[in-house]
Amino acid sequence: MTFNVAAGAYDRFMGRYSVLLSPQMADLAGVAAGQRILDVGCGPGSLTAELVARTGSENVAAVDPSTSFVDAASSRYPDVDVRQASAESLPFEDGRFDAALAQLVVHFMTDPVRGIGEMARVTRPDGVVAACVWDHAGGKGPLALFWDAARELDPSVADESQLPGVREGHLAELFGQAGLRDVRSTVLSADLEHPSFEAWWAPFEEGVGPAGAYLAGLAPERRAGLRERCRAALPDGPFTIIARAWAARGEV
Ligand SMILES: C[S@@+](CC[C@H](N)C(=O)[O-])C[C@H]1O[C@@H](n2cnc3c(N)ncnc32)[C@H](O)[C@@H]1O
Fold it and tell me: Which of 39, 236, 245, 249 is the most buried (most CB within 10 A)?
């Protein structure tokens, strides 16, 4: 389970980008004061924080299958209803929420249509379901440079470009298959400046997500080779990593 890691490691590796998506996702779903909102695949709570700021802890619920992330989100937001669950089987009654959001989660669902369908089930009629996933297939996700280097060293590497929703238009297709109507797509941006190569690289060594797990599974000399290849592709000083995500919203 590549997300069975400490919350701090996630924050340093992926949270540094996902926190920039959160206000854009809340805007996309039209989250406003007083609405009841569900955060699906909340992780340690990048999006949860934005939802709490907009509608109050008592109106936010969050789920994640990872024990360490559920513990972290519960302690960071003690008044939010945080539960251990997967999108494919949400522990809520029909129509409980005004909106259900999944930020960087659909590509990890074992059954994305069922997961999005569950998000629709727990959302009231005319409510909103919204999701985003990195553009891993188009090469504009934040891990593109890492996976390019890994592929150069091993063309058979299983990168994240084949996952559901990561190619243009696929997320909206999945929304349609899950029965949502008026589905609209957009692109979100979380481009981020990194002060140095070390600051960018160090979190890769913490074993988070498919990239962290891949690196951790390499023999030491292959790990060093991958690091050097990334090093050669980046400048010394501050540089910006492009981080674009496909997003979709639909109505129930
Ligand atoms: C990249 S993280 C995103 C976390 C958070 N939403 C954010 O924006 O930082 C992916 C999250 O999806 C969760 N996840 C994986 N499979 C899931 C599923 N089937 N249903 C719900 N969440 C899932 C993982 O445990 C992890 O917390």
Answer: 39
**How far are the Cα atoms of 12, 44, 127 from residue 19, in angstroms, in the given order?**
11, 11, 24
- The answer to whether the CB of 42 is under 6 A from ligand 1 is yes
Cβ 48 under 6 angstroms from ligand 1: no
The answer to whether residues 245 and 21 touch, using CB atoms and an 8 Å cutoff, is yes
Quote the CA–CA distance of 161 and 155 in Å, as a whole number. Answer: 13
Cα–Cα distance for residue pair 237/228, rounded to 1 Å: 16
24 lines ligand 1 (CB under 6 A): no
Could you tell me the mean pLDDT of each successive run of 10 residues in the chain, 252 residues long? Answer: 87 98 98 97 98 98 97 97 98 98 97 98 98 96 97 92 94 98 98 96 96 96 97 93 98 98
Torsion sign, CA atoms 70, 194, 243, 225: negative
- Tens of pLDDT, residue by residue over 29-38, are 999 999 999 9
C-alpha distance across the termini of the chain, in Å: 32
| Cα 227 to ligand 1 centre (Å) | 26
pTM across the whole model: 0.97
Q: Is 210 in the pocket of ligand 1 (CB under 6 A)?
A: no
Q: Report, in this order, helix, strand and coil percent for the chain, each rounded to 5.
A: 45, 20, 35
Backbone angles phi, psi at 145, to 5 degrees: -65, -40
Q: Residue 69: its pLDDT value, please?
A: 97
